[in-house]
Each structure stands twice: as structure tokens, then as C-alpha cells.
Write a structure and sequence with these properties.
Layout: E1 3-7, H1 14-23, E2 27-32, E3 39-41, H2 50-54, E4 59-62, H3 71-84, E5 89-95, H4 104-117, E6 123-128, H5 132-140, E7 148-151, E8 154-155, H6 160-172, E9 178-179, E10 189-190, H7 191-202, E11 208-211, H8 216-224, H9 238-242
Parallel strand pairs: 1-2, 1-4, 2-3, 4-5, 5-6, 6-9, 7-11
Antiparallel strand pairs: 8-10
Helix pairs in contact: 1-6, 3-4
């Protein structure tokens, strides 16, 4: 049993991760701006409450994100606190292909990886493909459009429950002091095909319009996108997620 601090523990990935860590017998603290059971209230941007939260912790699982706006600052603050606390093992969540796809958010995630690597703490970096939840959100956001726009690219989405399971494995293992193998979902699918699954599950009859966007970012997504070679780690398909 280990004492674990989870940042972003109330988020999309945080909730199943906290649940699985507790099911595995670990003692889990959630670092959050909002009070609640087993939460240490604080702020990664201002460092409020951070020193108390990391005290006595064996592993920090960093799942927090401000969608790029403050991620680097928050990671730097967390790593500083980890060093002061005695360098617990830091498990850092990242995204497959952040070093290949020139999106601003991906550049930020890559910068966070570099901060972790240069921090002097024991660490493990895990990259995963897009979550099923994100694909669902993209389609839901178009609910007022007469058509469903779907980028003409191939993705390998993964369930957050599968990612949470891998995080539990990494928490129990020795620090890799580097990146471990990337993980992706069980299927590679064209986004227009995912749109078809989504429409059937949600009872939508709008036509799907495949979309191509000029520029390097889309071209890189289409030709060398966020895919993982080898045996997929994830087990839950997008259709099973929708069900």
C-alpha cells in the first residue's frame, strides 16, 4: 500500500484513477480547489496548500490540466514541492505524438514532459491516445449544426478506465525515469466512422461531412497521427463506451 496524491483527481481521468487506486488498497489524497472527502484543498497555480498535500506522499500522479493556459507553471510548482518533500515518484500523464503534432496544447504537454525530465525527481511519463470522452464531446458540441463534421483522420481512442488501470500499474512499479510504452485503444478508426457509431448510439440522423483542413497540423495528424504500434493496451472500444 502506498500513499498517493492525485492532482486533477476530480476530472475525467482522475475519477476512475482514484477509484482504481483505492480499490488496489492505496491511500489516496485528491488535490483540488474544491473541498470534499479525502481532498486537500489548494491551488497548483498559487501553490496554496501544496506543501501540506505532498507531505508524506510516496507517489504523485499528475493528471491536472488547465488545457495549456497554466500547465507549465502548475507542473513547475508541483515538481518544486515534490523535491522539498523528499522527491516522491511523479507519474506524469501526457499525450501520444506531442513531439510530432504542432498544436499549441501539444507543445505545452511536451514542455511539461521536459520539466519533469529535468526536475531531479524520480518520474515516469505515460502517453495515451485521445480519450473516448473527447471524441464524444467533439460530436456533442455540434448539436446545433445541420451536419456532423468529422476530421478525415485516423485515431485510436482509449477509454479512461483503461488508462486508469495502467496508472495503477505504474504506481506499483519502480520509477522508469523516462517514458514507458505509449498506450492506445483497441481499434484504429477513421473519425467519420466513429461519427457513424456516435449517431446510431445517440439517435442522430444528420449526414456526416468528412473535413480536411489545410496546413501542417492537419497534415501531420493525417499522416503520422496519434497512433500506437504493437498490441493495444486498451480493451474498451468506442462502441462499448457509447453503450
Amino acid at each position: 500500500m502506498r500513499s498517493i496524491l492525485v492532482t486533477g483527481g476530480t476530472g475525467t481521468l482522475g475519477r476512475p484513477t482514484v477509484g482504481r487506486l483505492r480499490a488496489a488498497g492505496h491511500q489516496v489524497r485528491i488535490f483540488s480547489r474544491q473541498p470534499g472527502p479525502d481532498r486537500f484543498v489548494g491551488d497548483l497555480t498559487t501553490c496554496a496548500g501544496l506543501a501540506a498535500a505532498v507531505e508524506g506522499i510516496d507517489v504523485i500522479v499528475n493528471l491536472a490540466t488547465s488545457l495549456g493556459r497554466r500547465d507549465e507553471r502548475q507542473a513547475r510548482n508541483l515538481l518544486d514541492a515534490a523535491r522539498v518533500a523528499g522527491t516522491p515518484h511523479v507519474v506524469q500523464m501526457s499525450i501520444v505524438a506531442v513531439d510530432r503534432i504542432p498544436m499549441p496544447y501539444y507543445r505545452t504537454k511536451l514542455a511539461v514532459e521536459r520539466l519533469v525530465e529535468e526536475s531531479g525527481v524520480q518520474f515516469t511519463i505515460l502517453r495515451a491516445t485521445q480519450f473516448h470522452h473527447l471524441i464524444d464531446q467533439i460530436f456533442r458540441a455540434q448539436r446545433f449544426l445541420p451536419v456532423l463534421l468529422a476530421p478525415a483522420v485516423i485515431l485510436q481512442p482509449i477509454a479512461v478506465e483503461d488508462v486508469a488501470g495502467r496508472i495503477v500499474e505504474l504506481v506499483a512499479a519502480a520509477p522508469a525515469n523516462g517514458r514507458v510504452a505509449d498506450i492506445g485503444g483497441p481499434e484504429r478508426s477513421r473519425v467519420p466512422d466513429l461519427a457513424g457509431l456516435w449517431k446510431r448510439a445517440r439517435g442522430s440522423h444528420r449526414p456526416t461531412v468528412p473535413v480536411r483542413v489545410p496546413g501542417r497540423t492537419f497534415r501531420t495528424f493525417a499522416t503520422a497521427g496519434p497512433l500506437v504500434d504493437g498490441t493495444p493496451y486498451g480493451q474498451i472500444t468506442f462502441a462499448e463506451y457509447l453503450a
